[in-house]
Design goal:
The structure holds two protein chains of two kinds.
Chain A (H helix, E strand, L loop, with lengths): L2 E4 L4 E4 L4 E3 L1 E4 L5 E7 L5 E7 L5 E4 L2 E4 L9 E3 L8 E8 L9 E3 L3 E6 L1
Chain B lengths: L4 E3 L2 E4 L5 E6 L6 E8 L3 E9 L2 E5 L6 E5 L5 E5 L8 E8 L9 E2 L3 E5 L1
Parallel strand pairs in B: 2-11
Antiparallel strand pairs in B: 1-3, 3-8, 4-5, 4-9, 5-6, 7-8, 9-10, 9-11
The chains are: A mainly beta, B mainly beta.
Chain lengths: 115, 114
């Protein structure tokens, strides 16, 4: 079945540092890929998405490129802020009828940014 | 545009009881999905409803059930509660539940079983 693997956390960075959170996936067909962010006490917020190979999703300075050849969707940001401290989830929306309404999530990566 | 609304935000129950959680999707969204979030298992898919029909189901026991109403609002029910059911339950809505359509999440219902 579909699966998503995220890099082990937690990740601790200083403000203005470069961020990379690795995400790889296993799926049949052509899935859609998403990054979500969760702040304490809240639900998940969509950060960005890509629905086909070589698509680049971007939002609020975050970027991720759908790489089918390496089955990856790594999240990057050039300069993190304290306000980016949160938990980040990579998610996959599988192809095919059995995937209706189902996202498969990675285990989440806790990011802490210090001033 | 109002987001996904889940009620209640917090619930405390005891073992053996049952509980009903409610979710109001974004206006115009017809697909509602439910997830369970725990520190040990992460985010796991429970089921999805579209046009009042369950189209997809995750690997959870029959104690977990749901339904959807004609206005797309959804409820989730858990019967015979167990300690392991303590979790954050998240509801998400999307236009039609297709894989390329992003899901929008509510803030969740925190269920604690004593």
């Amino acid at each position: 079945g579909d699966s998503v693997t995220q890099m082990e956390g937690p990740v601790t960075l200083s403000e203005e540092a470069f961020l990379t959170i690795n995400c790889t996936y296993t799926a049949t067909g052509y899935p859609s890929l998403f990054w979500y962010v969760q702040y304490p006490g809240e639900g998940l917020q969509l950060l960005l998405k890509a629905t086909k190979a070589d698509d680049k999703g971007s939002n609020k300075g975050f970027e991720a490129t759908y790489r089918k050849e390496t089955t990856s969707f790594h999240l990057e940001k050039g300069s993190v802020q304290v306000s980016d401290s949160a938990v980040y989830f990579c998610a996959l929306g599988g192809a095919g009828g059995t995937s209706y309404g189902k996202l498969t999530f990675g285990q989440g990566t806790i990011l802490t940014v210090h001033p | 545009k109002a987001g996904v609304t889940q009620t209640p935000r917090y619930l405390i129950k005891t073992r053996g009881q049952q509980v009903t959680l409610s979710c109001s999707p974004i206006s115009g969204h017809r697909s509602v999905s439910w997830y369970q979030q725990t520190p040990g298992q992460g985010l796991q898919f429970l089921f999805e409803y579209f046009s009042e029909t369950q189209r997809n189901k995750g690997n959870f026991p029959g104690r977990f059930s749901g339904r959807q109403f004609s206005n797309s609002r959804s409820e989730m029910n858990v019967s015979t509660l167990e300690l392991g059911d303590s979790a954050l339950y998240l509801c998400a809505s999307s236009l039609e539940g297709l894989s390329n359509q992003p899901q929008h999440f509510g803030d969740g219902t925190r269920l604690s079983i004593l």
